[in-house]
């Protein structure tokens, strides 16, 4: 194997690792934060805001990160390293939120840190995609971007396992401190692993003109019905998933006296079904077409949500394993909805 091949392999492994770790941040706290928040008399709405503000921060900051990389002299490598350091520091600080006794201070500090974590995560995602395009042009780069996308459900699987197991061994701070230190470690690794490249985003009038053309194209894309439908589908599906994330942990813990480790496995099983059915749904779209699957995915989500909701309200005597199955089916339908929406977008264009 040549030195170039070894370097490219190391870079690919590095990108995949930090991408997976960044995707797991959201679900790390699902098995432990609601319990800690409730112990401080926080309502479900209050800690749900803390859970959801992370994704909101990513959604708001992502366009600005991409614009910053395009319009400033900052290289993507330096932005990535800085974002890894910020992510690690904010996670370590978040690990000590349980030491705050005052509820308002606890919630306020949690929200601020989660916003910072989301902003840093958006920078990680944006710079990784940018650097993959630079380092791996051609067919392998396209394939590797697909591999990175497949790590999203894998992060959903990894996060609860990290959160629950480290919580069992070291308390609330353990998972956040460990993962935060890993981010800081990877920031140092990045300085040695990533090949040095000259930043092409200088004040070149040609580059500025191209950026303006890209902005016009991006705005025109939102006028396409297929793009708008795809956006609405993904937004609603993500809303449903995050809604369950805020309620599943206290429901299992209170109704069934379930330990954090078992709750972590519930989320893990759901993530595995999410990942597996995404592949099945993609193959199904290729084989038979995407017509109607966006609507059918929405119906499946509604039916699965009714099943879980009725179990929680009526109390029909389910055990934790049946509940895991129902919740997994709900996420399975969600992945069908997302995948169908993406295929619907592509086919209509």
Automatic annotation (TrEMBL):
Record-annotated Major facilitator superfamily (MFS) profile domain positions: 10-349
Pfam families: MFS_1 (PF07690)
Keyword Membrane part of the UniProt annotation: yes
Annotated TM spans: 12-33, 45-69, 75-94, 106-132, 138-162, 174-194, 227-248, 260-287, 293-318
InterPro entries linked to this entry: MFS (IPR011701), MFS_dom (IPR020846), MFS_trans_sf (IPR036259), MFS_Vesicular_Transporter (IPR050930)
Keyword Transmembrane on entry: yes
Recorded GO MF terms: transmembrane transporter activity
Subcellular location: Membrane
Keywords noted in UniProt: Membrane, Transmembrane, Transmembrane helix, Transport
Record's protein name: Chloramphenicol resistance protein
Species of provenance: Folsomia candida
